[in-house]
């Protein structure tokens, strides 16, 4: 018993004749008759009674058998639909992890764009610190990760995704609002919201102020740039952040000014090294790159990756 024989049986049951079944299957009538005969031999009972001058008669056994065949074909049809969905990237699941600097602003834009083309793909976006993002991808649990650079991480492939130039963020109506560029001496004695001790970017920012001999008033230390921006809009102090995080706070009156000397924020794209990327994952990465390039062109953040 094979699938072609079952297809012939099903076609005869659905159309009511061998002739019409042959037309549906694009076969000759003798070819369909042989498939039916071979199937009857394989299963050991008659499916149809044939007599000259009368219509094909379905046996009771054929009725019972057809019920089971139809259930099987429903499963086959479901598999065909699933294969078609996979081929056309119209269904599936994606697990994405990103550090907060890109999870709260950049990734929502990406997912909005991606879902226009792939509305049936379920995306699970997790927000974690960079170390956790890298580990999730290294464990082959996630399809895509965005995080800062680290020493070599086994089990992942990585590439530079974005370099963003840091900006100074100021509360609404701040005394420095009229300045086009903020420099270390401008922030002397200013309440300042800083990253936590041990953070690489915190060390770079501290070094700039130390080299300039400028002391800030460190009023709050917190690990996420989105928290910095929220605190700044409340007038708690000023800060230096990745502008990709800050743009969503412009509606709340946040002021963004270029900061000199240059502070670079670098973000890497991490993918699992021990398994191939799905077509959906590749499509998501392409969307991420397109949204990134559009935001760079609009001046929202950063610069192209060389």
Q: Short description, anyone?
A:
With 306 residues, this protein is an alpha/beta fold.
How are the secondary structure elements laid out?
Elements: H1 3-15, H2 18-25, H3 29-43, E1 48-49, E2 57-58, H4 60-87, E3 92-98, H5 100-103, H6 106-117, E4 121-127, H7 130-138, E5 144-147, E6 156-165, E7 167-170, E8 191-194, H8 200-212, E9 217-221, H9 225-233, E10 239-241, H10 243-246, E11 255-258, E12 264-272, H11 279-297
Parallel strand pairs: 3-4, 3-5, 8-9
Antiparallel strand pairs: 1-2, 5-12, 6-12, 7-10, 7-11
Structure description:
- There is one protein chain.
- It is rod-shaped, with a radius of gyration of 32 Å.
- The two termini are 60 Å apart.
- The model is unreliable at 302-306 (pLDDT under 50).
- The strands form four sheets. A five-stranded mixed β-sheet has the order 4-3-5-12-6, sandwiched between helices.
- β1 (48-49) and β2 form a beta hairpin.
- It is 44% helix and 20% strand.
- The longest helix is centred in the first third of the chain and has 28 residues, at 60-87.
- It has helices at residues 3-15, 18-25, 29-43, 60-87, 100-103, 106-117, 130-138, 200-212, 225-233, 243-246, 279-297, and strands at 48-49, 57-58, 92-98, 121-127, 144-147, 156-165, 167-170, 191-194, 217-221, 239-241, 255-258, 264-272.
- α1 packs across α2 and α6 crosses α11.
